[in-house]
Every structure is written in structure tokens, then in C-alpha cells.
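Notes from the pairing session

We agreed to fold both candidates in a single pass and log them together. This is the raw record for the first candidate, unedited. Please don't reformat it; downstream parsing expects exactly this layout.

Candidate A
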Amino acid sequence: QSIADWAQGKTKDDIAAALRGEGDSPVAQIAKAAKADEFWMYSRFFGLGLVKMMEIIGVEQNADDTYPVMEEWMGKSLDKPFFTACSDSDLYFKVKGKLDMMETMMKEIEIREKKRMAERLEAKAEAALKKAERDAEFKAVEAADIEEKVEEKEATPFFAGEE
């Protein structure tokens, strides 16, 4: 976090100077230690830290734009082999691209499922509405039949057969 705070507002040249060991920043201290140790080993974490610093200072986050910066920082500034760092940054962007595609695909699947669920709910609501209309119509016909029978009974005299 202290390196990220330090990198805020810096330029590529400022960080390159720190990687050459100039100044007293945390990055300059790390660079001095790495240059002094002939058995210093590059690690992916170190490379990803450089990629993160590039992101902080505003370098476009894709393999084509970070490669020359990584080459400059590792090769010219740190005087260390840059091929592994560049290939690791390429790998990082390939994996990141795949993860972004996967995230997009998952969102699309989620949207598709929500649409299907909405269609199912709409169909259920439509079926319930039709059933309610059918029931109301059935009750209306039933009520009309009962009313018709009541009217028929009232129209015929009780002692109709006695006349």
C-alpha cells in the first residue's frame, strides 16, 4: 500500500528513476537492494506490482502498451532481464481478458434467466387471469340458470293442475 500511495501522481519517468535507485522512495530502496544482490530473482508478484504501478500512473492496461514500459523499467532501469516480466504481464492480460469475458458471459446468462423467469411468471399470471374469467363466466351462467328456474317456478301457478 505504501508503494501504491507513493506512485500516486508520478510519471513513468519518475518511477524509472526510482527503479534506477535514485531518491529515497520505497521503490528506490527495493531497486537498490535488487541491484546489490547478484542472486536476486524476479517473481510474478514483483511483475504484477509493476503492472499495478502502471495502472496507477495511467498507462493503458493492455499487453501492447505495457510491454515497452516493462522493458524499460526492468531492462534499462533495474538492469535485470525483462523477458520473463514481459511474458508474465502478457499472461496477466490474457487471463484478465478471459475473466472479463467470463464475467460478461455470466451476466448475459443471468439476464437470459431473468427474462425466462419473467416470461414464466407472465404466463402463470395470464393463466390465472383466464381461469378467473372462466370461473366468473361459469358463475354468471350458473346464476342465470338459477334465476331462470326461479322465474319459471314463479310463472307457473302452484295449483296449475287443478283448473
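Candidate B (folded immediately after A)
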Amino acid sequence: IECPLGGSVVFHYPSGRHDVVAMFDQKHYDNCDFGNSTQLAPFIQNDQFESVTYYHKCTTPGQIDYISCSVSRHCQQFGQRVMVRTSSSINTHDEVSGEWLIHVQSLDRILRLLGQRSDPSTGFLIFDRGYQTEELANQT
């Protein structure tokens, strides 16, 4: 995945099923070896919410982060891992004005992350997931 500089990659998963771990390097990533890894979002059973959301910030141009799930054998058996490269040329904001940039594909992805669906009987848009807390909403 290529992440724009200043952007985030969102990990959204059912509570009590996964975690998010930064692998030490590509060799550890390739072998699903969690030695020297760093836990980014812990495995938690959250009775208050059905799901967990972690925002991985993309702040260093050209950096590659090797991320995986360390629960059970999710990395080895199910390939639950991803390489995130922070772009050196694509930004989330205009470098001159400082204004945030957004385009149709980004907006579509945001709406899907929020669980956008349409109620056929009313035509209303419903966002099943939304943000779990005001703090998470303000981070985005």
C-alpha cells in the first residue's frame, strides 16, 4: 500500500480477534517472525465496542512499514500482513496553501471505512461504523 505523506492507513477489525504489530524488518515480515516486533494495537476484548480501529500514521517519506497480525497463526496461515510505504511525492495537503487535498477515490474509501450504506425504504445514508469516540474523529 502506498500511503500519502501525512495520511493514515486504517486497520478496523472485530474486537477480540486481531492485533496490529510492526515487524522488525522485511526478513521478519517475510517469515512471519515476531521477534523484536512492536505492538501498535493490542489484542483486546472490548465489551463496550464490537470493533477496534487503529490509525497508522504515514509521516516519514519513503519509509516502509511491515505490519501484521500476531494472533494465532493469522500471518502464516491467512497472510494477514501488509507493507505500507509512505509516499515521497504524494501529500495529504497542498504544500503551498497548507489546505487539505481530497479526491473522489479518497472520499469513496472514507465512506466505505465508515460503513456507508443506503436504506432503500427511506433513501437515507447510514454509517454503521462511524468513529468510536470523539477523540478518534478529531484525529482524522
